[in-house]
Amino acid sequence: MKPRLFTPGPTPVPESIMLRMAQPIIHHRTVEFQKALHDVGEGLGYLFRTSQPVMTLTSSGTGAMEAALVNTLSAGDEIIFVNAGKFGERWGEIAGVYGIVAHEITIEWGTAVTAEQVLEALGKHPSVKAICLTHSETSTGVFTDVQAIAAALRPGFQGLIIVDGITAVGAHEMRFDDWDLDVVVTGSQKGLMIPPGLAFIVLSERAWKSAESSTLPKFYFDLKLAKKAFATDDTPWTPAVTLVLGVADALAMIREEGIENVWNRHARMASALRAGVAAVGLQPYGNPPSNAVTAVMLPEKGEEFSSLMKKKYRITMAAGQEQLKGKIFRLSHLGYYDEADMLAVLYAIESALSDIGHQYTSGAGLAAAQKVFNGGR
Amino acid sequence: MKPRLFTPGPTPVPESIMLRMAQPIIHHRTVEFQKALHDVGEGLGYLFRTSQPVMTLTSSGTGAMEAALVNTLSAGDEIIFVNAGKFGERWGEIAGVYGIVAHEITIEWGTAVTAEQVLEALGKHPSVKAICLTHSETSTGVFTDVQAIAAALRPGFQGLIIVDGITAVGAHEMRFDDWDLDVVVTGSQKGLMIPPGLAFIVLSERAWKSAESSTLPKFYFDLKLAKKAFATDDTPWTPAVTLVLGVADALAMIREEGIENVWNRHARMASALRAGVAAVGLQPYGNPPSNAVTAVMLPEKGEEFSSLMKKKYRITMAAGQEQLKGKIFRLSHLGYYDEADMLAVLYAIESALSDIGHQYTSGAGLAAAQKVFNGGR
């Protein structure tokens, strides 16, 4: 088989964008680049469904998560975060470094926090300034219903709702303004279909107000500087120029497809892949499932299966992390994927299962996916 | 004319590297990528002349400057920095944000700090923990003799010597270990010839010892995490994958040319360009000049001259910044430049000067450059 990438970041980059980024480099203080940054700003507003400035940072998504906290909070402030995976945990780690008092909602990996659990934690810690959520927990493939949680919290809670949307934005519905969120971050190598190196962050008016009194130190990630620069289609520091040009094209593709169509396509891919793996007797991991990444329990002879997937069928997938190491595998359908990609990975799964002697009906996975694509018929 | 880029970052990227980066993206937790990161680590050690790990950060150079301070210092620590341009000034700005007491050596823009001035400042502030220098001040085109300053400071001064080498590394001799420096940072879009988005940082044993007691908060820029990851050819956060692959190729080019040949080439380009602009009656700005970027006083009708350079001759050059706005123009010869590039820009300068009616002998600039290339004959 041809090599194929199914990791939840980096995700495949459209060839046209790769070639756009390979054109002779331009300087960032030029009319041409300013126009690209302007388009990126508009496109990100469309993607996040917001009229607030969505700022572009040159960093990984983790940098944007740090920016979210250090710009809106002060040492001694309290937050609630959810530890249901490696990335939810990270909110607590960043908070700890900055002297923010982080109250953890500990739930089993593979499950999602509910609005009731968040309200209960808020009841115990009524003075928290922010609640940090993970819209799609990449390490477990689990979706958190941020919309429902925000709806349950408002209007009673007037603190900040901060969302790691790193593998969710572009894959799941996100309506920053309508849902009354305060900070959402994402990364470039996810739903935005370009290589890693950029992160994006948006703040609500409430969050900007909080930024006024934030005393945590920041320089590179100072969002007041980023906002000021945004107003003139600029960035405070030299941005990753080629990636910005790439994301301008990616955002144009998203607008052309239409954001609701993009969300629906992710739901359809995820649903087909889940149906396919279940049809060949594999056990999905995690509930409710994310539309960005599907986690599946490894079959018996899991190591051999993974090795066949990689070496014989040339599928690069993601393994389990930390406590899920050796227990699950993860397949991305985040960004630039279509029906044929899902069939390709199901072909590889069926074939690798056959190679290791796993009993199933040949073609059952492909047929189940096709049925989803046919709208259940 | 064909469009040509002469800015001190981004600098031109070799076509082969652009196309390397345009190949299908790979995941960062793969053998292939680990090998690239390993090669980058080795190549950076060669470039910085050090046996210490040189770590790769996904950020602009400013991010690496912040990392330099927050990893080695604590609030209340004192430093000395030199304000002789926009980038020297930045050390003081970052320090201010983190509660570091920053003593400024203020010298005229366009000049360089001397060892005597540094020693004098140290005499006044004997308890400083670090001295922050700017090897090549991009805003003024001035070179600071870091080697001489370090030699004058040692062994009496056992604090940290921290160097912004952003436009110097690759253009000027840099011997991190031999010169007994403590931190040096650089960026990807400079002497390393790739697009912006990566920064590089190296710490001495003395600096790592200082890092042990540093209490300033850091997460994304925590270099202990970066060092630990470096040991296994990894990074703590998802790196800018395509740029890492690009810099692996760029470092291979540098090794093939030989680092001393690279330094000598930069000296030759700079010398030829300086001779060329002087020969047509323009006034160089700044002394001693950097071999990375040449600053020149704008001629009369400077605005018209700049506009012709940009629009008629399609040379993207850098303007003066802050107090030098409207007074100078700056031309880069940092990274992927050769003799013909210097002739191209001198042709444009001669032609634009002719267009605005500036009196000079046609071809004098080109001839002066050729004389330098011929070794003065």
Task: Outline the biggest β-sheet of chain A.
Answer: 7 strands, mixed
Kindly state the percentage of residues in helix of chain A.
40-55%
Provide mean pLDDT of chain A, rounded: 97
Poorly predicted runs of chain A: none
Tell me what portion of residues of chain A adopts beta-strand conformation: 15-25%
If strands are numbered along the chain, what order do they take across the biggest sheet of chain A? Answer: 2-10-9-8-5-3-4
Q: What is the assembly state of the chains in this entry?
A: homodimer
What is the CATH T-level topology of the largest domain in chain A? Aspartate Aminotransferase, domain 2
Q: Count the helices of chain A. How many?
A: 13
Give me the count of strands of chain A. Answer: 14
- What's the CATH class of the largest domain in chain A, please? Alpha Beta
> What pattern of helices and strands is seen along the backbone of chain A?
EHHEHEHEHEEEHEEEHHHHEHEEEHH
The CATH H-level superfamily of the largest domain in chain A is: Type I PLP-dependent aspartate aminotransferase-like (Major domain)
Q: Which term fits the overall shape of chain A? A: globular
Tally of domains of chain A? 2
Structural class of chain A: alpha/beta
